[in-house]
Design a protein that fits this description.
The radius of gyration is 31 Å and the shape is elongated. Among the domains are: 76 residues, Orthogonal Bundle (Helix Hairpins); 159 residues, Cupredoxins -  blue copper proteins (Immunoglobulin-like, Sandwich), CATH 2.60.40.420. The strands form four sheets. It has a six-stranded mixed β-sheet with strand order 10-7-3-4-5-14. Strands 6-12-11-8-9 form a five-stranded mixed β-sheet. It is built from eight helices and 15 strands. The chain starts with a helix and ends in a 10-residue tail after the last helix. It is an alpha+beta fold. The protein is 42% helix and 20% strand.
């Protein structure tokens, strides 16, 4: 009875509740590393040379900034401990207000780091320009002169990805493949709203915008299946707008192409307009034949029959505007001398 009373007293005092919280908290802290152990930091462990160079840039920039951050944090802790109120041995100089040597250290080190960061960023911005053709396959290999880059035309739809291979006359939805160690040239656009094409293991993010064409040059160096997705919110089906990027050997890529060619489906303008309708969580589709002019029609917003492309419309507007202005000048009545328009 006495033991039962003690338990009831502890429970009423909230001790048992606090102990339970402590145990749950310790369990949660222990479980975090176990849960994160299944995660893979793709950005820091990429499989393409462009993404690897971008990772190195992030690490180098972080290291340079830590040269300031770590000493400042350490000194803040040291000063707080050394000059605490109870430490009578610390020097007390209430009238001290300036030190030229200290000012030089405080300003010179951050200035040097900013100069290094600026130089590193400027060089990397040009070397990693997504419009710049690749000059190497990886750190130790240059791109062979005889290699022909793989051309892939990418169209962002609601809410799926369309990939057209103009060199092979096929197209796929929510799946693409590329040979290992072969440069890839992406031509990217969107059918309606802005999206962002992103394969973290391959290269950086590039925006896809309607009536515009952006580019990305990249290469995959390791075989595997990698996640690709849109990194720009585009509506209700955004979360399912994902695709599989397959890095495969040359022979396996040929087999993948042959499998796609066996599909009886044809991606012409009529099929594209049907595909363009919003749909969510779309499974992989393959088209054995693809219209070679479709991508430029998508960029020009003239897939529909009888509709003029954007460039043609702008050219006609420019010509019509100029002709109209000249006609207006010729037909305008002459003004009496001295009368202002």
């Amino acid at each position: 009875m006495r033991l039962t009373g003690w338990i009831e007293t502890l429970a009423n005092a909230g001790v048992m509740r606090n102990c339970k919280r402590w145990v749950n908290g310790r369990f949660a802290l222990t479980a975090v590393p176990l849960l994160l152990g299944g995660c893979r930091a793709v950005v820091l462990d990429p499989s393409g040379d462009v993404a690897a160079q971008q990772r190195d840039l992030v690490l180098q920039s972080t290291g340079l900034m830590l040269l300031v951050i770590v000493p400042v944090i350490a000194l803040a802790l040291v000063f707080a401990w050394r000059y605490r109120a109870s430490n009578r041995a610390a020097r007390y100089e209430p009238d001290w207000d300036h030190s030229t040597q200290l000012e030089l250290v405080i300003w010179a080190i951050p200035l040097l780091i900013i100069i290094c960061l600026g130089a590193l960023t400027w060089v990397s911005t040009h070397l990693l320009d997504p419009y710049r053709s690749l000059t190497r396959l990886d750190k130790g290999r240059a791109v062979p002169a005889e290699v022909i880059p793989l051309q892939v035309e990418v169209v962002a739809l609601d809410w799926k990805w369309l990939f057209i291979y103009p060199q092979y006359g096929i197209a796929t939805v929510n799946e693409m493949a590329a040979p290992v160690d072969r440069p890839i040239t992406f031509h990217i656009t969107s059918a309606n709203v802005m999206n962002a094409f992103y394969v973290p293991a391959l290269a950086g993010m590039v925006y896809a915008m309607p009536a515009m064409q952006s580019q990305l040059h990249a290469v995959i160096n390791k075989a595997g299946v990698y996640d690709g997705f849109s990194a720009n919110y585009s509506g209700a089906g955004f979360s399912g707008m994902r695709f599989a990027f397959r890095g495969v050997a040359a022979a396996d890529f040929d087999a993948w192409l042959e499998q796609a060619r066996q599909s009886p489906a044809t991606l012409d303008r009529t099929a594209y307009l049907e595909l363009m309708r919003p749909s969510e969580n779309v499974p992989v589709r393959r088209f054995g034949h693809a219209d070679s002019t479709l991508f430029q029609a998508v960029v020009g917003l003239c897939v529909q029959s009888g509709r003029a492309c954007a460039r043609q419309t702008m050219a006609m507007d420019t010509a019509g505007g100029a002709a109209g202005s000249q006609a207006a000048l010729r037909s305008a009545p002459s003004r009496p001398e001295g009368v202002q328009p």
